[in-house]
Amino acid sequence: MATTEITSTNHDQTVADGIVLLDFWADWCGPCHMFAPVFEKASEKHSDITFGKIDTEAQQALAASYGIQSIPTLIAYRDGIPLFSQAGALPGEAVEDLIQQIRGLDMTEVRKQYEELKAKAERQQS
């Protein structure tokens, strides 16, 4: 599967289901260009995963909502839950390892922990 351009319009729907990897990048960024073929190769190998690319220049508000300060940044979701975020160009082996770890998660337990964290954050804001 090829990568998908992610914008503020399709972001929420894209990350809602399944495994989603998001690559925050910019055209002027050398490390982004180094990571792009690694990301593309992984997208071709794992057709059941959504691989989204977010151009931080074109999608400044979306990048800001994530607090992106360094690119490339890779963010991973499964079933709408953010699981991983790391700045820097990862090697292919690290991307493959990340994918296997995400596939192996007990999502029942992850959902429980995620809901507990959300509830705690809401109580702290009140």
TrEMBL record:
Gene3D superfamilies: Glutaredoxin
Domain Thioredoxin: 1-104
Keywords for the protein's UniProt record, in alphabetical order: Disulfide bond, Electron transport, Redox-active center, Transport
CDD domains (UniProt xref): TRX_family
Family matches, as PROSITE patterns: THIOREDOXIN_1 (PS00194), THIOREDOXIN_2 (PS51352)
Keyword Membrane in record: no
The keyword tRNA-binding appears for this protein: no
Record-stated family: Belongs to the thioredoxin family.
Name by which UniProt lists this protein: Thioredoxin
The organism of origin for this protein: Leifsonia virtsii
Native organism taxonomy: Bacteria, Bacillati, Actinomycetota, Actinomycetes, Micrococcales
